[in-house]
Amino acid sequence: MLITTSYDPQAEHLEAAAQLARSIKQLQGIDNPVRLVPRKRHSLARLRTLYDDSDILLVSKERIEYYHEDQSALFFHPSTAAIRVKRLVNGEHDPLMELSAIQPGDRVLDCTAGLGSDALVYSYAVQGNGEVVALESEPIPYLILQQGLMTYDSDIPGMNEAMRRIQVIQMDHSEYLQRQPDNAFDVVYVDPMFRQPIHESSSISAIRTLANSRPVSEQTIKEALRVARRAVIMKEHRSSDEFDRLGFEEVRRSTTKIAYGVIRL
Question: So which residues are the signal peptide here (predicted)?
Fold first, then answer.
Protein backbone atom coordinates (compact mmCIF):
# COMPACT_ATOMS: atom_id res chain seq x y z
CA MET A 1 0.00 0.00 0.00
CA LEU A 2 1.28 3.44 -0.97
CA ILE A 3 0.74 6.58 1.12
CA THR A 4 1.19 9.89 -0.61
CA THR A 5 -0.15 13.44 -0.68
CA SER A 6 -1.86 15.78 -3.09
CA TYR A 7 0.29 17.95 -5.33
CA ASP A 8 2.47 20.62 -3.63
CA PRO A 9 1.80 19.48 -0.05
CA GLN A 10 2.33 21.74 2.94
CA ALA A 11 4.54 20.61 5.81
CA GLU A 12 1.53 19.56 7.88
CA HIS A 13 0.30 17.30 5.07
CA LEU A 14 3.69 15.60 4.84
CA GLU A 15 3.65 15.04 8.60
CA ALA A 16 0.07 13.76 8.44
CA ALA A 17 1.07 11.27 5.75
CA ALA A 18 4.05 10.11 7.83
CA GLN A 19 1.83 9.73 10.90
CA LEU A 20 -0.70 7.81 8.85
CA ALA A 21 1.99 5.39 7.70
CA ARG A 22 3.01 4.77 11.30
CA SER A 23 -0.60 4.23 12.37
CA ILE A 24 -1.41 1.78 9.59
CA LYS A 25 1.49 -0.47 10.49
CA GLN A 26 -0.15 -1.01 13.88
CA LEU A 27 -3.56 -2.01 12.51
CA GLN A 28 -4.80 -5.58 12.37
CA GLY A 29 -5.32 -7.05 8.90
CA ILE A 30 -2.80 -5.01 6.88
CA ASP A 31 -0.95 -7.69 4.95
CA ASN A 32 0.97 -5.82 2.26
CA PRO A 33 3.90 -3.46 3.01
CA VAL A 34 3.10 0.20 3.69
CA ARG A 35 5.30 2.67 1.82
CA LEU A 36 5.36 6.45 2.16
CA VAL A 37 6.20 7.83 -1.29
CA PRO A 38 6.62 11.39 -2.64
CA ARG A 39 3.89 12.57 -4.99
CA LYS A 40 6.01 14.97 -7.02
CA ARG A 41 4.00 15.60 -10.22
CA HIS A 42 3.01 11.99 -10.73
CA SER A 43 -0.54 10.90 -11.39
CA LEU A 44 -1.90 8.10 -9.21
CA ALA A 45 -1.73 5.78 -12.21
CA ARG A 46 1.95 6.63 -12.62
CA LEU A 47 2.62 5.94 -8.92
CA ARG A 48 1.03 2.53 -9.27
CA THR A 49 3.34 1.74 -12.17
CA LEU A 50 6.46 3.11 -10.48
CA TYR A 51 5.94 1.18 -7.25
CA ASP A 52 3.95 -1.80 -8.57
CA ASP A 53 1.15 -1.33 -6.04
CA SER A 54 -2.56 -0.79 -6.75
CA ASP A 55 -3.56 0.48 -3.28
CA ILE A 56 -3.08 4.17 -2.50
CA LEU A 57 -4.00 6.30 0.50
CA LEU A 58 -3.98 9.97 -0.46
CA VAL A 59 -3.62 12.66 2.20
CA SER A 60 -5.01 16.03 1.15
CA LYS A 61 -5.95 19.22 2.98
CA GLU A 62 -9.57 18.12 3.24
CA ARG A 63 -9.45 14.38 3.94
CA ILE A 64 -7.93 10.94 3.43
CA GLU A 65 -8.92 9.06 0.27
CA TYR A 66 -8.39 5.39 -0.51
CA TYR A 67 -7.91 4.29 -4.13
CA HIS A 68 -7.86 0.72 -5.39
CA GLU A 69 -7.30 0.17 -9.10
CA ASP A 70 -10.18 1.72 -11.09
CA GLN A 71 -12.70 1.80 -8.25
CA SER A 72 -14.22 5.01 -6.95
CA ALA A 73 -12.32 6.77 -4.15
CA LEU A 74 -13.37 5.86 -0.63
CA PHE A 75 -13.45 8.68 1.90
CA PHE A 76 -15.39 9.82 4.93
CA HIS A 77 -18.47 11.97 4.47
CA PRO A 78 -21.58 12.19 6.69
CA SER A 79 -23.67 11.49 3.59
CA THR A 80 -27.28 10.68 4.50
CA ALA A 81 -26.45 11.09 8.20
CA ALA A 82 -26.23 14.85 7.63
CA ILE A 83 -29.75 14.90 6.18
CA ARG A 84 -31.08 12.79 9.03
CA VAL A 85 -29.44 14.95 11.70
CA LYS A 86 -30.86 18.07 10.08
CA ARG A 87 -34.29 16.51 10.39
CA LEU A 88 -33.70 15.79 14.06
CA VAL A 89 -32.51 19.36 14.58
CA ASN A 90 -35.80 20.53 13.05
CA GLY A 91 -37.82 18.29 15.35
CA GLU A 92 -38.65 15.70 12.70
CA HIS A 93 -38.53 11.94 13.20
CA ASP A 94 -35.95 9.34 12.24
CA PRO A 95 -37.27 5.77 11.77
CA LEU A 96 -34.21 4.07 13.27
CA MET A 97 -34.11 6.38 16.29
CA GLU A 98 -37.83 5.77 16.87
CA LEU A 99 -37.43 1.99 16.64
CA SER A 100 -34.53 2.24 19.08
CA ALA A 101 -36.57 4.44 21.45
CA ILE A 102 -33.41 6.50 21.86
CA GLN A 103 -33.18 8.80 24.86
CA PRO A 104 -30.50 11.29 25.92
CA GLY A 105 -27.82 9.48 27.90
CA ASP A 106 -28.28 6.09 26.22
CA ARG A 107 -25.36 3.81 25.38
CA VAL A 108 -25.41 2.38 21.86
CA LEU A 109 -23.19 -0.27 20.30
CA ASP A 110 -22.91 -0.19 16.49
CA CYS A 111 -21.44 -3.59 15.68
CA THR A 112 -20.73 -2.92 12.00
CA ALA A 113 -19.86 0.75 11.64
CA GLY A 114 -18.67 0.92 8.03
CA LEU A 115 -18.34 4.65 7.37
CA GLY A 116 -20.39 5.54 10.43
CA SER A 117 -23.63 6.96 9.04
CA ASP A 118 -25.95 5.31 11.59
CA ALA A 119 -23.45 5.70 14.44
CA LEU A 120 -23.38 9.43 13.76
CA VAL A 121 -27.17 9.77 13.97
CA TYR A 122 -27.21 7.71 17.15
CA SER A 123 -24.48 9.91 18.62
CA TYR A 124 -26.45 13.06 17.91
CA ALA A 125 -29.61 11.53 19.40
CA VAL A 126 -28.02 10.35 22.68
CA GLN A 127 -26.56 13.85 23.18
CA GLY A 128 -23.52 14.80 25.24
CA ASN A 129 -24.16 12.50 28.19
CA GLY A 130 -24.71 9.45 25.98
CA GLU A 131 -22.17 7.16 24.36
CA VAL A 132 -21.80 5.42 21.01
CA VAL A 133 -19.22 2.71 20.42
CA ALA A 134 -18.66 1.92 16.73
CA LEU A 135 -16.92 -1.32 15.79
CA GLU A 136 -15.23 -1.83 12.43
CA SER A 137 -13.18 -4.97 11.90
CA GLU A 138 -11.56 -4.05 8.58
CA PRO A 139 -8.48 -1.79 8.69
CA ILE A 140 -9.09 0.66 5.83
CA PRO A 141 -12.75 1.51 6.64
CA TYR A 142 -11.75 1.75 10.32
CA LEU A 143 -8.94 4.17 9.55
CA ILE A 144 -11.01 6.36 7.24
CA LEU A 145 -13.87 6.48 9.73
CA GLN A 146 -11.63 7.23 12.70
CA GLN A 147 -9.78 10.03 10.90
CA GLY A 148 -12.94 11.44 9.34
CA LEU A 149 -14.83 11.67 12.61
CA MET A 150 -11.92 13.55 14.15
CA THR A 151 -11.39 16.06 11.35
CA TYR A 152 -14.59 16.59 9.33
CA ASP A 153 -16.14 20.01 9.89
CA SER A 154 -19.90 20.46 9.58
CA ASP A 155 -22.05 23.57 9.90
CA ILE A 156 -25.02 21.58 11.22
CA PRO A 157 -25.61 22.43 14.89
CA GLY A 158 -24.35 19.65 17.14
CA MET A 159 -22.91 17.60 14.27
CA ASN A 160 -19.22 18.10 15.06
CA GLU A 161 -19.79 17.26 18.72
CA ALA A 162 -21.67 14.11 17.71
CA MET A 163 -18.80 12.98 15.46
CA ARG A 164 -16.11 13.61 18.04
CA ARG A 165 -18.03 11.69 20.72
CA ILE A 166 -18.06 8.38 18.84
CA GLN A 167 -15.56 5.82 20.09
CA VAL A 168 -14.27 3.84 17.09
CA ILE A 169 -12.69 0.45 17.80
CA GLN A 170 -11.10 -1.93 15.31
CA MET A 171 -12.45 -5.27 16.43
CA ASP A 172 -14.77 -8.00 15.19
CA HIS A 173 -18.17 -7.58 16.82
CA SER A 174 -18.37 -11.21 17.93
CA GLU A 175 -15.18 -10.84 19.96
CA TYR A 176 -16.23 -7.47 21.40
CA LEU A 177 -19.68 -8.72 22.46
CA GLN A 178 -18.17 -11.71 24.26
CA ARG A 179 -16.06 -9.33 26.37
CA GLN A 180 -19.01 -7.21 27.52
CA PRO A 181 -20.99 -7.68 30.73
CA ASP A 182 -24.74 -8.26 30.69
CA ASN A 183 -26.89 -5.19 29.88
CA ALA A 184 -23.86 -3.07 28.97
CA PHE A 185 -25.68 -1.09 26.25
CA ASP A 186 -29.22 0.15 25.81
CA VAL A 187 -29.25 -0.73 22.10
CA VAL A 188 -27.10 -3.09 20.07
CA TYR A 189 -27.27 -2.35 16.34
CA VAL A 190 -26.11 -4.58 13.48
CA ASP A 191 -25.89 -3.45 9.85
CA PRO A 192 -24.03 -6.16 7.92
CA MET A 193 -23.25 -6.07 4.23
CA PHE A 194 -26.53 -7.03 2.63
CA ARG A 195 -26.77 -10.54 1.20
CA GLN A 196 -28.64 -8.88 -1.67
CA PRO A 197 -26.69 -5.74 -2.68
CA ILE A 198 -28.37 -2.42 -3.40
CA HIS A 199 -26.36 -1.40 -6.44
CA GLU A 200 -27.78 2.12 -6.58
CA SER A 201 -25.86 3.03 -3.43
CA SER A 202 -22.50 4.45 -4.57
CA SER A 203 -21.15 4.78 -1.02
CA ILE A 204 -21.83 1.12 -0.29
CA SER A 205 -20.35 0.04 -3.63
CA ALA A 206 -17.08 1.80 -2.74
CA ILE A 207 -16.73 -0.01 0.57
CA ARG A 208 -18.13 -3.41 -0.39
CA THR A 209 -14.80 -4.88 -1.55
CA LEU A 210 -13.16 -3.84 1.75
CA ALA A 211 -15.94 -4.75 4.16
CA ASN A 212 -16.30 -7.92 6.16
CA SER A 213 -18.79 -9.95 4.13
CA ARG A 214 -19.34 -12.68 6.71
CA PRO A 215 -23.03 -13.07 7.60
CA VAL A 216 -24.18 -12.37 11.15
CA SER A 217 -24.16 -15.55 13.21
CA GLU A 218 -26.85 -16.83 15.54
CA GLN A 219 -24.26 -16.72 18.32
CA THR A 220 -23.69 -13.02 17.66
CA ILE A 221 -27.41 -12.30 18.10
CA LYS A 222 -27.45 -14.42 21.26
CA GLU A 223 -24.58 -12.36 22.68
CA ALA A 224 -26.22 -9.11 21.54
CA LEU A 225 -29.40 -10.06 23.42
CA ARG A 226 -27.32 -10.60 26.55
CA VAL A 227 -25.47 -7.30 26.20
CA ALA A 228 -28.50 -5.12 25.27
CA ARG A 229 -30.91 -3.70 27.82
CA ARG A 230 -33.65 -2.46 25.50
CA ALA A 231 -33.36 -3.80 21.97
CA VAL A 232 -31.26 -5.50 19.32
CA ILE A 233 -31.82 -4.05 15.85
CA MET A 234 -30.60 -5.30 12.48
CA LYS A 235 -30.77 -3.51 9.14
CA GLU A 236 -31.06 -5.58 5.97
CA HIS A 237 -32.62 -5.67 2.53
CA ARG A 238 -36.40 -5.74 2.93
CA SER A 239 -36.67 -9.12 1.18
CA SER A 240 -33.80 -10.70 3.13
CA ASP A 241 -34.20 -14.14 4.71
CA GLU A 242 -31.75 -13.12 7.45
CA PHE A 243 -34.51 -11.77 9.68
CA ASP A 244 -36.17 -15.18 9.89
CA ARG A 245 -32.89 -17.05 10.24
CA LEU A 246 -31.77 -14.91 13.17
CA GLY A 247 -35.11 -14.71 15.00
CA PHE A 248 -36.26 -11.17 14.27
CA GLU A 249 -40.04 -11.46 14.48
CA GLU A 250 -40.68 -7.69 14.32
CA VAL A 251 -39.65 -6.35 10.91
CA ARG A 252 -40.30 -2.75 9.88
CA ARG A 253 -39.98 -1.86 6.20
CA SER A 254 -38.48 1.64 6.10
CA THR A 255 -38.16 2.16 2.32
CA THR A 256 -38.65 0.15 -0.85
CA LYS A 257 -35.20 -1.37 -0.25
CA ILE A 258 -34.47 -1.26 3.51
CA ALA A 259 -35.99 -2.98 6.53
CA TYR A 260 -35.18 -3.13 10.24
CA GLY A 261 -35.57 -6.23 12.38
CA VAL A 262 -36.16 -5.58 16.08
CA ILE A 263 -35.98 -7.83 19.12
CA ARG A 264 -37.23 -5.95 22.17
CA LEU A 265 -36.13 -6.86 25.69
Answer: none
